Amino acid sequence: MRHPSEGVLRRLVDEPSGVTADDRAHIASCSTCLPALDTARAEARLVGAALATSTTVDTDAAWARFTTSDTATAPAPRPVIAAPGRGRWRPALRRPVVAALSAVVLVAGAGVAAANDWLPIFRTEQVDPVEVSTGDLVALPDLSAYGDVEVLQAPDPVQVADADAARERTGLDVPEVAALPDGVTGNPSYQAAGVVSGTFTFSADKAARAAAADGQALPPVPAGLDGTSLRLQAGPGVAAVWSQPTGVPTLVVARVVAPTVDASGGVDFETVRDYILSLPGVPDALSDQLRDLSKDGGTLPLPVPAALVTTSTADVDGVAATVLTSRNGLFAGVVWVEDGVMTGVAGSLSAEELLSVARGLR
Question: Is the distance from CB of 92 to CB of 84 less than 8 angstroms?
């Protein structure tokens, strides 16, 4: 006897209209499928509690829920423009998940070219997954312990009335979906966010104190690195979000100006990269991945919890895209970069459905 897949059971919880009458009838009378449906409902409650759609979600708490729960699932898809509010932005930089994202962006640059007092060391041309574990995220150094972090601009994401309002606020067109997948209905809500930028200025004195406090030896600081600043900028961004009645997104289509990093002074990229990767606490396996990745130039590392998510590549209208799929098949996402703009499609749908959406965007 054929039983509906886990994806069909989850669709019955989230979007019943997307499940065929035959599957609904089978599940209602099947002693095997009914307990599995209860499990799908429990997982839906877990996802809803762990990652609400608020832009002030505590990413560390959510990560802990997913990695310690017996029913762990991949995180619910969220607009890529989501970020802590202005008041929470500085504390967020000290949390391990955000520190991990910051670190991998800062060390994965391309070649150096002069531009006033800043050297552009990174311009996103593509994304590539980097496998990380909970231990990797926790072990990564706290950037604020190795220098001074200053937020120059916060993204201040807001909900706007429609796609035209999002375009007017950001200058970006919201991608139009040609055909919604089965089970995704209604009109989306729209979000817009401005530019986020900040600097990290390396301090040899602070780094030495931090290493000593952890009983570690700080590697010798290369000449010229002390006092060097790295300036990260990304955005603006827009997103269209189709949500379930529970508030968890079913489909998110987002577009954001991809991250760039500039460096002050005359220290070259290789010096910055090699030293950051040598800091105490950077796991060897992660360091090796980032060294290999940076050889491509312009590749933005995409941290992926390997225990929960698989990755693959696909073609989206001639552009290489990264496909992420939760191991239980409940969530997926597609991300690609074209002309300095990153586009993402994610949701509680199959990878095939999301690729169809991605390839049909206008």
Answer: yes
Domain count, the chain: 1
96 vs 355: CA distance, rounded Å = 31
Could you list the residue range(s) of the whole structural domain that residue 84 is in?
A: 51-359
| Residue 107 located in a structural domain | yes
Question: What is the four-CA torsion angle of 53, 56, 59, 64, rounded to 10 degrees?
Answer: -80
Write down the number of H helices and E strands in the chain: 12, 15
| Phi/psi of residue 278, nearest 5 degrees | -90, -5
Give how far Cα 248 sits from Cα of 15, 51, 64, 112, Å.
11, 8, 19, 42
Q: What is the pTM of this model?
A: 0.68
Tokens, residue 252: 């998110």
Per-residue pLDDT reduced to its tens digit, 62-85: 334 333 333 333 333 333 343 333
* 216-230 pLDDT, tens digit each: 888 899 988 898 888
